[in-house]
Specification:
The chain has 334 residues and is α/β, with parallel strands linked by helices. 40% of the residues lie in helices and 22% in strands.
C-alpha cells in the first residue's frame, strides 16, 4: 500500500489579494487575466500603491500545486509537497499556513536565507484574477527538493505548469516524471495559466513529452495549446498526449475524458467574486476523488462543487469544515 496518495512539486508563494477596477490595469499598463512574472522591487511598489488605493483584501498561502495539495489534505488524502521558501517572515508565514494540514514536506527547520516568493493577485468585479508574481527563492526549486522515497511511495506525482519558467525547476519536473514512470507512479500535471501555454509552450510540451497520465486545463488553455478554435478539436489533440484529462469550462462546468469516453460535469450556479484558485481546487478535489477510488463522474462532482464554493469567496482555499460539508452534500462522507 502506498504511503501517499499524491506527491506534488510547485512554487511556494504567499498571495496578497486586492479588489481593483479595470482602470487600474489601464493606468499601470498591466495585461488583465494573465500571470506575469515581475521583480520583487516592482512588485513591492505596486503592493504599496494598491494598499493605499484599495486596501489589502487577504493574505494567504498560495501557489498552484500547493493549493491543490492543501485541498486534497483537507478532504482526507495523504500528500507530500516539495517546494522552497526562505528564512524570512513570509516564509515562516507560509510554513504556518501549511501547518498541521496532513501535508508532509521537504521543508526543514533550517530554511535558507533569501526572499520567499509572493503573488500579487488583483480581482475585478467580473471575478477575474490577474497575477503579478515574484518567484524569488522559489525560482531556485531544483532536483535538490525532490524526495525520492516519497515519490515512489505515492499513487500520483503532480506538478504545475508555472514551473516551466525556471530552468532548474524544469529539470526537477523532468526528473520527477522519469522517476515516477520508473516506479509505476502515475504522472499528472496542470497547464496552470493561459500565459504558460502562450509564452512558454516549448516548456509545457517538454513536461508533456511522450504523454502524461492525467492533465488538467481550462478551455482557453486547451485552445491555445492545441492551436485550434474549437473545444472538440482541442480535445482531439489532447487525446494524443494525455491518457485522461479534465477541461474546466467556467460557468458551463467541465468536460472529462476517462480514456474511453467523455463525461460532462454540471456546474453549480454561484455568484463568483474571485476565481483565484478555482482551477487549483478543481485539480485537488478531482485528484482526491481518483486516489480515493471514485470513478471520473464522482470525482468530477466533488471538483465541480468545491471549485464553485472557492470562487464565491476571496482566497484560493476553503476551510476544513467546508471540505467536510462538500462530501456530506454529495453523500460521500466517511
Amino acid at each position: 500500500m502506498k504511503k501517499y496518495d499524491v506527491y506534488g512539486i510547485g512554487n511556494a508563494l504567499v498571495d496578497k489579494e486586492f479588489e481593483v477596477d479595470d482602470q487600474f490595469f489601464i493606468d499601470a499598463g498591466i495585461e488583465k487575466g494573465f500571470m506575469t512574472l515581475i521583480d520583487d522591487d516592482k512588485q513591492q511598489e505596486l503592493i504599496n500603491l494598491l494598499t493605499r488605493r484599495y486596501g489589502l483584501k487577504k493574505r494567504a498561502g498560495g501557489g498552484s500545486a500547493a493549493n491543490s495539495m492543501y485541498a486534497m489534505s483537507q478532504f482526507g488524502s495523504r500528500v507530500f509537497f516539495s517546494c522552497k521558501v526562505a528564512n524570512d517572515e513570509t516564509g515562516h508565514f507560509y510554513v504556518r499556513e501549511l501547518g498541521n494540514q496532513n501535508i508532509s514536506t521537504n521543508l526543514s527547520a533550517a530554511l535558507e536565507d533569501g526572499v520567499t516568493g509572493r503573488c500579487l493577485v488583483m480581482v475585478t468585479q467580473d471575478a477575474e484574477r490577474t497575477m503579478l508574481t515574484s518567484l524569488a527563492i522559489s525560482q531556485l526549486v531544483s532536483v535538490n527538493e525532490l524526495d525520492y522515497d516519497a515519490i515512489r511511495n505515492s499513487k500520483y506525482a503532480y506538478t504545475e505548469g508555472y514551473l516551466v519558467t525556471s530552468p532548474t525547476a524544469r529539470s526537477a519536473v523532468l526528473e520527477l516524471k522519469r522517476y515516477a514512470k520508473e516506479h509505476d507512479v502515475k504522472f499528472a500535471m496542470t497547464f496552470s495559466d493561459p500565459a504558460m501555454v502562450e509564452y512558454f509552450k516549448e516548456g509545457i510540451n517538454e513536461f508533456i513529452g511522450e504523454g502524461v497520465d492525467l492533465l488538467f486545463c481550462n478551455e482557453k488553455e486547451a485552445l491555445l495549446w492545441s492551436g485550434t478554435n474549437s473545444l472538440e478539436d482541442a480535445c482531439k489533440a489532447l487525446e494524443k498526449k494525455a491518457a485522461q484529462f479534465a477541461v474546466t469550462l467556467g460557468a458551463r462546468g467541465a468536460l472529462l475524458f476517462d480514456g474511453a469516453q467523455y463525461l460532462n460535469v454540471e456546474p453549480h450556479t454561484v455568484r463568483a467574486v474571485d476565481t483565484n484558485g478555482a482551477g487549483d481546487m478543481f485539480s485537488g478535489a478531482f485528484l482526491y476523488g481518483i486516489a480515493k477510488g471514485y470513478d471520473f463522474n464522482t470525482a468530477g462532482k466533488i471538483a465541480s462543487l468545491a471549485s464553485s464554493l472557492v470562487v464565491s469567496q476571496f482566497g484560493p482555499r476553503l476551510s476544513a469544515e467546508q471540505h467536510r460539508e462538500i462530501l456530506e452534500r454529495l453523500e460521500l462522507s466517511e
